[in-house]
Specification:
The chain is an alpha/beta fold and 287 residues long. It folds into 2 domains: 2-160, NAD(P)-binding Rossmann-like Domain (Rossmann fold), CATH 3.40.50; 163-284, N-(1-d-carboxylethyl)-l-norvaline Dehydrogenase, domain 2 (Orthogonal Bundle). Helices cover 47% and strands 13% of the residues. The longest helix has 24 residues, at 163-186. The relative contact order is 0.12.
Amino acid sequence: MIVGVFGAGAWGTALAYTCAKSGNKVIHWGFDGVFDGLSDLQKPENVTRTDNMHDLKTCEYWLIVTPAAFFRETVQKMRNVYNGQPILICTKGMESKSGQFMSEILNTEIPECKDFGILSGPQFAREVATGVPTGSTLAGNERVRAGGHLALSTLYLQDSDDIIGAQICGVGKNAVSLISGFLTVTAQGENDRALYFTRAWDEIAEIGVKMGADCETFLLLCGVGDLFLSATSTTSRNFSAGLSIAQGEKVTGTVEGIFALQGLVKRAEILGVETPVLIEMKNKMGL
């Protein structure tokens, strides 16, 4: 299969290499031809790099792996070359201004795409790229899941049809990871940290259920699996950012948890879901 991967950061590069190791020909697009993710790793021979989206028009399957902040801009450009491919969204997050999920943006910008899905789970990019055993939830219809299993056959993929649930889990774990890092410094003790951590995740689950998500999704790899990985490790950018905020240090780079926390509070207000912990944590962090 010929797979097109949009996004050349660490995560986009890791998935491009994984698709190649799974036996596919990969065309990897990077904005302005910049490929700065995992540059110390050797590129597989069956990965072709390009800055021209038209080179991906004939691909049989697409992966979008751009940061949430640039997702809409990228999808708007992709529409000009869209050719009916199933699209797998591999971006976790919410758009900061609109509070929309990535699937909602895709529906707006490429409304003709009916076959799309979500890849979400406990995944650190470098470990995925170097072949460390990794599992993810693959949410979507049968066509999307079938293509996903071919594109990413070296990963353990757990099928689901809960697109909303998979996304709210990915967004929520970013926010809770940020909160967890912050609480590591500011909580009165481990009991206090666990209390806030659990209540925050419960509020996110309530938002998800209100949007039509399945409760069981929060127990999958995209849920507790990703939450465990991201909210307990300093390798997580969100956890480390929470630590930095608590210590009064400047946060640099893209931190999806900040946008996620802001967006979740905004979405909860629209849905009429009470989120006292998320609001308290947002205010304490000055977001």
